[in-house]
UniProtKB/TrEMBL annotation:
Record gene name: glnE
Descriptive protein name: Bifunctional glutamine synthetase adenylyltransferase/adenylyl-removing enzyme
Highest classification ranks of the organism: Bacteria, Bacillati, Actinomycetota, Actinomycetes, Jatrophihabitantales
Positions of the UniProt region annotated as Adenylyl transferase: 510-1015
Residue ranges of every copy of the PII-uridylyltransferase/Glutamine-synthetase adenylyltransferase domain listed in the record: 367-498, 886-1010
GO molecular function terms attached to this record: [glutamate-ammonia-ligase] adenylyltransferase activity; [glutamine synthetase]-adenylyl-L-tyrosine phosphorylase activity; ATP binding; ligase activity; magnesium ion binding
InterPro entries membership: GlnE, GlnE_rpt_dom, NT_sf, PII_UdlTrfase/GS_AdlTrfase
NCBIfam families linked to this entry: PRK14109.1
Amino acid sequence: MTDPPGAVRHASRLARLSFADGARAAELLAGAPLSWWDLETNEPVDASAAVVVAALARTADPDAALAALARLLAAPGCTGLREELEQRADLRARLLGLLGVSGEIAAHLVDHPEQWRVLVDDIDTGAVARRLHDAVRADVADPVTGTGGTRARCTGPDAIDALRTAYRREVVAIAGRDVAGDLDVRAVTEMLADLAGHTLQAALAVAATSLAPDAPCCRLAVIAMGKAGSRELNYVSDVDVVYVVEPLDEDDDVEPALGTGARLAAELMRVCRAVAWEVDPNLRPEGKDGPLVRTLASHEAYYRRWAKTWEFQALLKARPIAGDLALGRAYSDVIAPLVWTAAERQDFVADVRAMRSRVVEHIPVAVAERDIKLGRGGIRDVEFAVQLLQLVHGRGDETLRSPETLPALDALRNGGYVGRDDAVSLVDAYRFLRTVEHRLQLRRLRRTHILPDRAADLGWLARSMGYRPDHRGTARDVFDAEWKLHAREVRRLHEKLFYRPLLEAVARVPAHGLRLTTAEAGRRLEALGFDNPDAALRHIESLTSGLSRRAALQRGLLPVLLADFASAPAPDTGLLAYRTLSDQLGTTPWYLRLLRDGDAVAQRLAHILGTSRYVAPMLGRAPEALRLLADDDALRPGDPVEVLAAMNDVAGRQPDAAAAVRALRAVRRQELLRTAFADLLGRADVEQVCDALSTTLAATLQATVRVALRSVAEARGLAELPIRFAVIAMGRLGGGEVGYGSDADVLFVFENVGDATAGGEELATNCARDVAGSLRALLGAASSTDPPLVVDAGLRPEGRNGALVRSLASYRAYYARWSSAWEAQALLRARPVAGDDELGRQFVSMIDPVRYPEGGVAPDDLVEIRRLKGRIDSERLPRGADPTTHTKLGRGGLADIEWTVQLLQLDHGHALPELRTTRTLAALDALAKAGLLESDQAEVLRTAWRCATRVRNALVLVRDKPTDQLPALGAELVAVSRVMGYPLGSDPGQLVDDYRRAARRARKVVEDVFYGGRG
């Protein structure tokens, strides 16, 4: 049998208005008591009817809303509802929206049709308590409920029914305005929490009627916990409570009062379970195993001695909600100070994090992705992050001590503990997730926080939230996109805030240390070991004074940083450097955010500034390098190809040579800071540091050669210079062993590729001289913020008296005729580093016979080398220097080791190609493998070389100037030992002993090999 054509028309028309069963909708709309639809015209009967039908169509479930409305209008007591619906838009939005969202509330309204008026009347939250108490005929004026206080005059099942009806009336008033958008989510949760409090108070009056007339008197305070305590309650949620009991007279025996209090609490829970929700007392001391009620003194004793970390987190939201409010306030006065010192407990932060992890682990796999409360990116992620920040920072900042999540987020944002954008994202997500939770619970008035998996149910949820189809798809698609976006953002921010390394550091600071008043800060600075507390205090006042967000962020950071500065070798220097850096970067928007949010950036920066004078001047010119501290991977040495490409790129975009080199210096600065950071933080060994510094110096030379070639060509009016030009690295640069204080030892070589006449040769020579001079001038320009870069050509033929540049043929002629033993030894480290690659290779091929002579070192040359080394030992060691701790020229120092290695390379390099390396450690490996050094001798020299090189680098990092003398004592020795990895608090003299031991052993090998070898 088919539907008549009229039914099809009605179904089609109403289906377009979102009714699933158009025929049934037409039947209900056309029949009594509605009469809003004309079956003949297939239209609403009039304009008033049209607005009602349109409002029904906009609900989450138009069919359910329509069916409920028909039943409601047919019920006695609905006088005037039809007319009000037609005339009042606010009533249509509230009532019809509610009927489309909640079948349970719809059924309640059909049973109590007179309650529709609560959706029209002005909402009077102040009268809620009176209405609930009137329902059970109890006197609400007396807040002390027990045998000595208020009892209801309506008892038994009648009292429960009356209280349930009155409670539902208030829920209808709240929910109708909620679904209509008249209340924001915070107002809804606060009203529900207040309603719960008034319900508990009325239920307590009912519970009192169950006590025997001669029951001992007591005072009973009901302390709300969880969402009830924070005024963030859901429509359907357990109400977490703790009970406090005292006798009416403080001199009375406690036990009878406890007995009465326990019976009263148990009956209260039974009444509330029948009226609205479960009352859950399991957050009490000892949980389910503990007594239901306790005295105030018993509570205090438990929390002081036995409470676990999670219990203090729960107490953050505790507040008196019913019963004897004076006793409740006394409980709060006792417990609150304990809450705000809990973060100082050992492993507090780790315990809170572990608890959150356990919650996630216990979510059933089948619903984990749809759990908007406990799942990843859910409500708990927001709340746990906020609560942890509150408990850690709230010890010193009382503005953070709000039990409510949204006000707490506002306070955390205002105090600079959470970034503005992050706070906005969390607030938006939290409001969204709580609204979703409310809609899910309203549908059947059941406790749930699991998103439905059926498409139809998700569509209902989307419409209940006000979503409509748009370019992203159906309402369900739009909701799904919004939900996933919020969940991703919550999870990202949860991990950023909840696992912020700064939290552990703040938690370790005593509460009094977080309040940086002048007197307290001065005492703390003195206790921490600052040499000049007055100066340090001036720095702190400069950084934290005022009402700006910058000052607020500094007030949050400095208590932690002071402890970190105090752990560094030079606290005063570090704090001054931090103030200078903060003044320079004060207007840089990301600077303080990075210190607050970055992965241990603040602590790392404090350690670095309190240890190294080398770093601070560069940081002011390269603030972006601070981002490197947030990522261990970023501290790895830059790839040589990438570093050179970056330098060439920035230089190529500049208008002139000076600007190009300034840009090159910026890249060099970044790479030097990367290396220094890794070194100071123990993320790179000495070989990696030398490699990174050598790479940076080589790239700087390569890029600057290009700039110099272009600059000289432009100055001479040439499109291209008539030369090939190469820079040959010597010394530590040639060996890839550059330290922080190393010069760039080089040779300049060119070849004429233009006119071969005398004039052409002269032009080529002059061009090469101009390029070399330009290179040295550009890189040697003074800079107050960068380490100096001296290009030293002193190892060239004839030394400083010789020509700065030579042609390849001139070098060949010189080395063939005039080269001395020391020059051949110096050439052992020669390698091309910049300029023309082919010319560099030709130079190396030309010098190989010189530095690896056939037949080894001639006897006369051996005598000369030893004599020259002896002169260096006796004459070049600075006056007053300690030869046992001078890292370069002292006994067993770098010169001893390197000359020994180089002598063996000179003597055997021709016969053994594996010895032909410019690197000391690689040469030691090859010498041991070839049997020219015993393995233990090679290891002794290797250990001593590494130790001396590390000490030299550490000295530059600490002093910001090159030096080779290890101090015997003092603050600099402490700093050097820390840079080298000796632990905080260890005796810095251990470094001196270790160095001397390594050098002494190396000297023994040098005497055996260098001075005791052949001849």
